[in-house]
Amino acid sequence: MASPVLQIRDLKVTFSTPLGPLVAVRGIDLDVSAGEMTAVVGESGSGKSVSFLAAMGLLPKSATVEGSVVLDGQQLVGASAKVMRSIRGRLMSMIFQDPLSALNPVHRIGAQISEMLRAHQHMTEKAARSRAVELLEIVGIPQPGDRALQYPHEFSGGMRQRVVIAMAIANSPKVLIADEPTTALDVTVQAQILEVIQKVQAQFGTAVVLITHDLGVVARVCERVNVMYAGRVVERSGIHDVFDRPTHPYTRGLLASLPHAGADRLVPIVGFPPNMLKPPSGCAFRTRCLHAVDACGHGIPELQPIGESMTACVRAKEVGVST
Ligand SMILES: Nc1ncnc2c1ncn2[C@@H]1O[C@H](COP(=O)(O)OP(=O)(O)OP(=O)(O)O)[C@@H](O)[C@H]1O
Ligand SMILES: [Mg+2]
Questions:
Q1: Which ligand is closest to the CA of 45, given by its number?
Q2: Residue 261, pLDDT above cutoff 60
Q3: What tens digit of pLDDT does each residue of 286-298 get?
Q4: Atom 16, ligand 1: which residue's CA is nearest?
Q5: Is the dihedral of CA 50, 55, 59, 64 positive or negative?
Q6: Please, are residues 196 and 162 in contact by the beta-carbon 8 Å criterion?
Q7: Who lines ligand 1 at CB under 6 A?
Q8: Which residue minimizes the CA distance to atom 24 of ligand 1?
Q9: What's the pLDDT tens digit per position in 78-121?
C-alpha cells in the first residue's frame, strides 16, 4: 500500500469545561493514503468531528490537542495559526453537513471559488474565473458558466453541496475530509453527492475521509472503516469484513440497528453513550455490552489483529466474529 498522506498517531483532545476536563478523543491512530476513501463511523459524541477539526486546527482555544498529525510529511500538532491557514484549503480541506455555512450569501459562486484559488495560487482574476467554471463542471453543475454568476440562495441543497466540494478541491488538496456531507440531503441527492466525492477521489487521487454515523453510506463508497466509540477507534476493518465479520460488539450493535431488506425490526444498542466527563474505566463500551466481564473494566483495550481486522475487544476471539 502507498505510504499514508495523512498519518494520525495517539491523537488526544481535551476540552476545558466548567464541569472539568472533557477528553473527547482518547488516543486515536488513523492512516489515509492517496486515492483511498476511509470511513469514520460511530454514534453522536464519539469524537469523529473533534478528531478532524483538531487535524485542521479548527478547534476553539478551550481545546488541548496532543499526539501527532502528519500531513504529507509535516507535523500539524502545534503548528502556528499562520501555517494552518496556508494548509487549509490547499493541502487539506474539510466539508460539512450544512453547505450554507461554507458559502458567503452575498458573493457570487464563481467569485467565491476564484477567491479560494487566488488565496493559495498565483493566478490572474481571469484565469481563476475560468478555472472556477471548470470546477463547477467537474462537480456536475449544469450550465456552469451561468451558474458561476449566481448566489448561494439560487442553488438547491444538493447543488450547494456540489459548490462546496468544488471550493474544497479547487487547489487540489491531498486530503479531503467530508463530515456528514450528505446527512442534510434527501436520499437520491445523497447518492449523487457521494458519486461526486468518489469521482474527485478517482480523478485527482485525493485521500478522502468520510465521517458519518450511517453505515449504509459507508457500504457504497469506502474501502476501509474506522469505528469510533467514546473517543477511541474500537474496530478498523476492510469494508467487507465490517459487514460480514464484524469483530467488536459495538460494530455488531451498529449493524443490527441498520435498516436492511428482510429485517422486520431494528435492534437499537441498549443504553446510552457514556458521559465523556466521566467515561467508564476500562472498555468504555462494557456498560452496554452483552459480553462484558470483569476483565473488561481493567485497562482500555488496544486494537489487536483478529482475522483481517483490528479490534479493541479483549473478548473478541472468545465471542467470535459472526453477527
Ligand atoms: N467545543 C467543545 N467544548 C466542549 N466539548 C465539546 C466541544 N466540541 C465537542 N465537544 C464534545 O466532544 C465530544 C465529541 O464530539 P464530536 O462533535 O466529535 O462528536 P461526533 O462523533 O462528531 O458526533 P455527531 O455524530 O453528533 O457529529 C462530545 O462529548 C462533545 O460534547
Ligand atoms: Mg460530528
A1: 1
A2: no
A3: 999 989 999 999 9
A4: 47
A5: positive
A6: yes
A7: 15, 17, 22, 24, 42, 44-50, 60, 62, 213, 276
A8: 44
A9: 999 999 999 999 999 999 999 999 999 999 999 999 999 999 99
Task: Please state the φ and ψ torsions of residue 91, each to the nearest 5 degrees.
Answer: -100, -30
Average pLDDT over residues 225-238: 97
Q: Are 159 and 109 in contact (CB under 8 A)?
A: no
Position 220 scores a pLDDT of 82
Q: Which three cell numbers stand for residue 231?
A: 473517543
Hey, whose CA ends up nearest to atom 30 of ligand 1? Answer: 45
Query: What would the mean pLDDT of 280-306 be, rounded to a whole number?
Result: 94
- Residues 310, 251: contact at Cβ < 8 Å? no
Domains of the chain, each with CATH number or no CATH:
1-86+175-278+302-323 (3.40.50.300), 92-172 (no CATH)
Q: Which ligand is nearest to the CA of 178?
A: 2
In this structure, how many other beta carbons lie within 10 angstroms of the beta carbon of residue 210? Answer: 26
CA nearest ligand 1 atom 17, residue: 49
Q: Tell which residue, 240, 215, 237, 214, has the closest CA to residue 226.
A: 237
